[in-house]
Amino acid sequence: MIEKVENSLPTGTALLQDPLLNKGTAFSAEERETLGLKGLLPPKIFTMEEQVARVLENYRQKKTDLERYIHLASLQDRNETLFYRVLMDNLDEMMPIVYTPVVGQACQQFGHIFRRPRGLYISYKERGNIAEILKNWPRKDVRVIVVTDGERILGLGDQGAGGMGIPVGKLSLYTACAGISPAQCLPVMLDVGTENEGYLGDPLYLGIRQHRVRGQEFDDFVAEFMNAAKEIWPDVLIQFEDFANSNAFRLLENWRDKICSFNDDMQGTAAVSLAGLFSALRVTKKSLGEQKILFLGAGEAGIGIADLIVSAMVDEGDTLEEARAKCWFVDSKGLVVKSRDNLVEHKLRFAHDYPFEPDFLSAVKSLKPTAIIGVSTIPKTFNQEVIQTMAELNERPIIFALSNPTSKSECSAEEAYTWSDGRAIFASGSPFPPCVFKGQTYVPGQGNNAYVFPGIGLGAVACKAKTVTDRMFSQAARALADQVLESDLEMGRMYPALSRIREVSAYIGAAVAEVAFNDGVAGIEKPANVLEFVRSQQWAPEYRNYVK
Ligand code: NAD
User: Fold this and answer.
1) What is the pLDDT of residues 9-38, one digit of tens each?
2) Active site residues
């Protein structure tokens, strides 16, 4: 008999073509008999382990990373359960393929490697009809949307409709890292055009061929989407992804109190960086309030990190003014101070009354920071003199070089350890291999956003949070730092091993849900054991028996 829940189960080819339900060669004899599959599959029945072996054999024969990306995307389109089994069991190897950096190449080649659509494409030409389009999505219980307009994809600039690769990749990580069911995830591309002349002239480009819609028309279009999504899926979490700076700050401010939403480039980055800082403080045995932090780069990432550090300092007893006075910025024109003209809005709150310094080194010498954080996209800016000065000023200087990709990192792990005589507490945005200095092996930690955003999503979705508050991010950062083992810290790693990510995400989810319950923004009653409740919400890539 077919399980009651499966009464609406498709049969035959329709079942094989539904990636959420398809099991491929793993359908049992009974299922093949009952579900009209006989003859549609080769006779041998395989276990999931055998299927995984076949996937890996094929995958590892591919010659380029882009081919590996295409291989995995095709698997995801055929059989999501198997895709997630493979991805979760090989996360270290495959995360750089399904997400950054290889997903960037996939976005650039999007129109050329396109096989099957995934997610919803909503073009500006459809304005006025967005609710209808959303209703075309076949899954009813959408809980996480990642939405982009493709304007600032990774460090690659405007990718137009090709930017869809990013929401797709990011949602794969929500599932692989935190266990949010793929049936609840929806990638969305708001196609408002592109300024990329290469795509506008490319016959295979998939988006609308026009320059970007700007200003009030853009805001109205986003608003129509946000309101329609909330109307149709009231408990949905919407993550803004890779919007240009000129829109990202405003969109977040406009929406974060109205709809459960956040911006990973700002807030996720901030939480993962704050977690690195909390881990570093476990090593220095100092408090957050005792830090003076100097940023190189005052863009989305830098300001987002500083805002969250300030919020965590305030949690620990500082006033807002006291906390802000501990965060400083150097941008492309020098130290951000009050006397500078024409500072953009988001830098003003960190423009202190202090003499101007023209460059980073002079700012380090003058301010004597305990930590420097590079988010400038300019490689080699943490040079020998900067790091040596930090090592003179601090017993254990905190040096985070977060710019991506590796080629843009402010310094390498090896440089940080060598120039500080092995005393730097280092973290980076892109991975660096372990390095040996004076006989000790250091394993530098990568401040990858994937440590945080899936767990935040899991927590928010599990408790049906109405908003995603700053305190959720700072508590997520604390939970992540708490999951770093002493053995990690001893080898210089400020983040846990990726192999523990599902468990770590459950702890982060529980921390986020706790905040929601305590601050009255949860949509459900508080369960007796929040961690166990969050764990019980995690989807696992296992085949279900359709026939009992
Ligand atoms: P952004 O473009 O918003 O900001 C970059 C900032 O650096 C701008 O304010 C720019 O004016 C400034 N800058 C440029 N040249 C400079 C110079 N010579 N000296 C000082 N400042 C200079 O970009 P963003 O989103 O803030 O990202 C910055 C970097 O951080 C990127 O490389 C990105 O990959 C990285 N990042 C890392 C993580 C992570 O590690 N988890 C997450 C997000 C972003």
Assistant:
1) 999 999 999 999 999 999 999 999 999 999
2) 99, 170
